[in-house]
Design goal:
Length: 518
């Protein structure tokens, strides 16, 4: 018999226990530590003999009182406890209660001389691991091994469960923080799980999404593709397709949908994991690129058509002047130069429109505000127009207005565009009416013609870039469809508005307003 460092008596029959360890009360950490609550040294020897015969490497500590047992429980840190049922100064029931309170995972085996079946059942319900009668000690070693195996299994199970919980928590964290919308589609194509990102994408809370059919967010084409995808899921196909969905506010949500079939442990299909990557911005960029590409194509075709006219004029009259100069009379020469001048003007307007559009696209429109008479830009435009087209009648109606702060040059630019537009689309014999009035804190300009008017279909697009009412390559009037677009941008930069309305008796009235500044 030996004593440990606390002075509590203990014995050791571990097969590899060294003399130095015995002398100093030390033991190998790999040894099985057994705390015995037993007052009989003979019974301890018998217990150790049975355990040793089973080939277990162990060290034991003896306790005979409550204090001994508590110190052994906390200091010795046993792997298993063997306890008699009754002792002079303590009892096994109290020891069992203490162990389940302090160290609930330590196996507790009663080794007693007498214990009825009812008592044994009661002890098991209180948390005892097993019981062995002293006259049947051959069961002791197997009971210990079985108890230790249960502890090992329980520990491994707890470790596995903890690892699973940690794994699930990591998974939830990853899924929650993912930049993709993630959901699981279960029976009847209903959403059984959705992450926060999917909630943001669709505009519904996670709770609202749960239970909804995925088909509620798909159009006919998408629903058909999804149906095929779910069917392929049964066959273990993984899909990656472009899907167009509709969010709560009705807006289109373009996504890349990656689907993976889910199966239970028996291989039965249970649903589909869907990961949605929002590509709406990319889709809009692609559409913008496509639109710009089409517009560039149109621009090239229209510009080529427009440039061909002045180029033809320049070349034709240049050849006439060079080849027949000496034979031409003054009137013919003046007519040729007049045609060249008109073609030059047409070319300059084309170049100016392109340059102005380029500045607009680059955000290079700057305002130069000053206090001016709002009627002054109108008078200047009318005077310049009459010098160019002496046969065209312009009728000006203006109120007497005080000075207002505005960019007079840009107002003039808009007026030139609208008056030229009215002239192009109406007969020369028809007058163009121009009006400038002040209405509810705005200076309003109106240009009315007696041309063919504008259809409702064209009305929706006349202020778009490169749009013309007639076929762009076969229109009867010059232009590349930039004038009204430029006018609209210039007016809106100044905080104003521009519109077109049909004129009573036929024709169109283009109006724009510039707000008066306080």
């Amino acid at each position: 018999m030996n004593t440990d460092m606390t002075g509590i008596p203990f014995t050791s029959r571990g097969v590899e226990m060294s003399r130095a360890a015995e002398k100093n009360g030390e033991y190998k950490r790999s040894q099985l530590r057994i705390l015995m609550l037993e007052d009989s040294c003979v019974d301890i020897e018998l217990n150790e003999f049975e355990i040793s015969e089973a080939g277990l490497d162990f060290v034991t500590m003896r306790a005979v009182s409550e204090n001994d047992f508590l110190e052994g429980l906390l200091g010795f840190q046993p792997d298993i406890i063997l306890s008699d049922y009754e002792l002079p100064d303590y009892d096994g029931i109290s020891a069992l209660t203490l162990v389940r309170e302090k160290c609930p995972d330590i196996p507790f085996i009663f080794v007693t001389g007498r214990m009825g079946e009812e008592t044994a059942i009661e002890m098991m319900t209180r948390g005892a691991t097993d019981y062995v009668l002293k006259h049947r000690l051959s069961r002791l070693a197997p009971a210990i091994k079985r108890a230790l195996k249960e502890v090992e299994d329980k520990t491994n199970r707890r470790i596995a469960e903890e690892a699973l919980r940690e794994s699930e928590e990591r998974y939830r964290t990853i899924v929650k923080a993912a930049n993709e919308g993630i959901c699981v589609i279960g029976e009847e194509n209903k959403i059984v799980f959705a992450n926060d990102r999917l909630s943001e994408m669709f505009g519904y809370s996670v709770e609202e999404l749960t239970g909804k059919s995925i088909f509620e967010f798909l159009d006919e084409e998408g629903a058909a593709a999804a149906t095929v995808g779910w069917w392929r899921g049964y066959k273990d196909f993984r899909e990656r397709v472009e899907a167009r969905l509709t969010s709560r506010d009705g807006s289109t949500l373009w996504t890349i949908a990656s689907t993976t079939p889910l199966r239970d442990k028996d291989g039965k299909y249970t649903g589909t994991l869907v990961m949605l990557t929002d590509i709406s911005k990319r889709k809009k960029a692609e559409e913008l690129i496509k639109k710009n590409s089409e517009e560039l194509k149109n621009l090239i075709e229209i510009a080529a058509h427009e440039l061909r006219h002045p180029a033809t004029v320049f070349r034709g009259y240049a050849q006439i002047l060079m080849e027949d100069w000496e034979d031409l009379d003054r009137e013919t020469i003046q007519n040729a130069l007049s045609r060249i001048d008109a073609a030059t003007t047409r070319l300059m307007r084309l170049v100016i429109s392109l340059l102005e559009t380029s500045r607009i696209e680059r955000g290079k429109i700057d305002l130069s505000l000053s206090e001016v008479d709002p009627v002054a830009p109108v008078r200047r435009v009318v005077e310049e127009f009459r010098l160019r087209e002496v046969d065209r009648k312009l009728r000006l109606t203006c109120e007497v207005l005080g000075k207002e702060e505005m960019d007079a040059e840009k107002v003039k630019q808009v007026l030139v565009i609208l008056i030229d537009n009215a002239a192009k689309y109406s007969d020369k014999k028809c007058p163009i009416d121009i009006e400038c009035v002040k209405v509810e804190g705005e200076i309003v300009y109106r240009i009315a013609d007696l041309g063919p008017g504008i259809s409702d279909e064209d009305k929706e697009r006349i202020f778009e870039r490169f749009y013309q009412v007639e076929d762009v390559l076969h229109h009867s009037v010059p232009g590349i469809g930039l004038g009204l677009y430029i006018a609209k941008v210039i007016v809106e930069v100044q905080g104003g508005w521009i519109s077109e309305e049909p004129r009573d008796g036929g024709g169109s009235v283009f109006s724009f307003g510039i707000p008066c500044r306080p």
